């Protein structure tokens, strides 16, 4: 059981959506938060609005440059104990593989894959030394099942799920917990911020995201998975949440469905 109260939790993607809801719920439960995203002003406003605001800190990082983010985080967090790192920051994609710039694939990999590894390399050495800690990554159902318009996003999320599986095997002897979160559709800014073929943002929501679960419900599921030290947790409703199980037992059916549906 990983308790939340009095733990120092480093949370990325705290400025919006699932991360914002996580920040509010974790603060309510007595965690000390290190709030990360690119936007320091939004993060500072958030910090001041949280329960026990003075116990939280802001650390602005741009994960599209993982090497720089790692160096900046190492400097800022030097000597600080981190009990839980939640790698939640991420961007998505809405474009066909045939049309998508290579730069879009690289940006998705930098933020959704290398960004996770970079921050884990900051947090893990002291967790291993203390023989305790918890690494959590918000991957996606898209990290288990491929569908249209997400070849770069799914590629990065499959990669991060594979990386987390290997990390879990290596961390078992060090008593460091490793949790992958696989949300289905969640109503956040993810589709609005998603990259199109030329790298511009889509700029509008998708119906399936709009009708997904709320960020608050998703955050509750993530906290539950952390407290129970789950290796993997699927959080969502409908087909998006069923997809990994269907893929495992009925792969041909899933191939038929994904070839027909837009998402
Ligand atoms: N919503 C869904 O349906 C869904 C489903 C499955 C998985 N997920 C995953 O859930 C996570 C959170 O997404 P969300 O749905 O809450 O989307 P969101 O509302 O768009 O939030 C994304 C967060 O990531 C941060 N971020 C984006 N680019 C960044 C960068 N270069 N460096 C640092 N931080 C960056 C953003 O902060 P700034 O803009 O302030 O930097 C923001 O806080 C993502 O990993 C996403 O892939 C979402």
Written overview of the protein:
It comes from Idiomarina seosinensis. One of its GO terms (molecular function) is oxidoreductase activity. By secondary structure, this protein is α/β, with parallel strands linked by helices. The protein has one domain: NAD(P)-binding Rossmann-like Domain (Rossmann fold, 3-Layer(aba) Sandwich). It is 48% helix and 14% strand. It has 10 helices and 9 strands. The strands form 2 sheets. It has a 7-stranded parallel beta sheet with strand order 3-2-1-4-5-6-9, with helices on both faces. Strands 7-8 form a two-stranded parallel ribbon. Strand 2 (32-36), helix 2 (40-49) and strand 3 form a beta-alpha-beta unit. The chain is globular and about 50 Å long. The mean pLDDT is 97. NADP nicotinamide-adenine-dinucleotide phosphate binds at residues 12-19, 37-39, 42, 61-64, 88-92, 111, 138, 140, 183, 185-186, 188-190, 193, 209, 212.
Beta-strand proportion? 5-15%
Helical segment count = 10
Bound molecules: NADP nicotinamide-adenine-dinucleotide phosphate
CATH architecture: 3-Layer(aba) Sandwich
Extended strand count: 9
Number of domains: 1
Q: Unreliable segments (pLDDT under 50, ≥5 consecutive)?
A: none
At the fourth level of CATH, the homologous superfamily is NAD(P)-binding Rossmann-like Domain
Measured between the Cα atoms of the first and last residue, the distance is 36 Å
Based on helices, strands and strand pairing, what is the structural class?
alpha/beta
- Main β-sheet, in a few words? 7 strands, parallel
Look up the CATH topology: Rossmann fold
Major β-sheet strand ordering: 3-2-1-4-5-6-9
Indicate the radius of gyration in whole angstroms. 18 Å
CATH C-level class is Alpha Beta
Please estimate the helix content: 40-55%
- Dominant shape: globular
Which whole number gives the mean pLDDT? 97
H/E element order? EHEHEHEHEHEEHHEHEHH
GO molecular function: oxidoreductase activity
Keywords: Oxidoreductase
Family: Belongs to the short-chain dehydrogenases/reductases (SDR) family.
Pfam families: adh_short
């Amino acid at each position: 059981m990983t308790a939340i109260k009095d733990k120092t939790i480093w949370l990325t993607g705290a400025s919006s959506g699932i991360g914002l809801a996580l920040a509010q719920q974790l603060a309510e439960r007595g965690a000390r938060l290190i709030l990360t995203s690119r936007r320091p002003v939004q993060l500072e406003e958030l910090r001041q609005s949280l329960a026990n605001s003075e116990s939280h800190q802001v650390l602005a990082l741009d994960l599209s440059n993982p090497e720089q983010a790692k160096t900046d985080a190492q400097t800022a967090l030097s000597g600080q104990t981190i009990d839980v790192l939640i790698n939640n920051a991420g961007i998505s994609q809405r474009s066909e593989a045939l049309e998508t710039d290579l730069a879009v694939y690289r940006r998705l990999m930098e933020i959704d894959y290398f960004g996770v590894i970079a921050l884990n390399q900051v947090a893990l050495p002291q967790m291993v030394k203390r023989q305790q800690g918890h690494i959590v990554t918000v991957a996606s159902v898209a990290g288990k099942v491929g569908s249209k318009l997400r070849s770069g996003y799914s590629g990065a999320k499959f990669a991060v799920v594979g990386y987390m599986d290997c990390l879990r095997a290596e961390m078992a002897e060090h008593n460091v917990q490793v949790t992958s979160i696989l949300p289905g559709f969640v109503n956040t800014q993810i589709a609005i911020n998603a990259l199109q073929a030329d790298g511009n943002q889509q700029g509008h929501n998708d119906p399936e995201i709009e009708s997904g679960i709320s960020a608050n419900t998703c955050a509750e599921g993530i906290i539950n998975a952390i407290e129970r030290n789950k290796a993997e947790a699927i959080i969502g409703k409908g087909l998006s949440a069923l997809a990994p199980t269907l893929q495992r037992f009925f792969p041909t059916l899933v191939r038929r469905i994904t070839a027909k549906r837009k998402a």
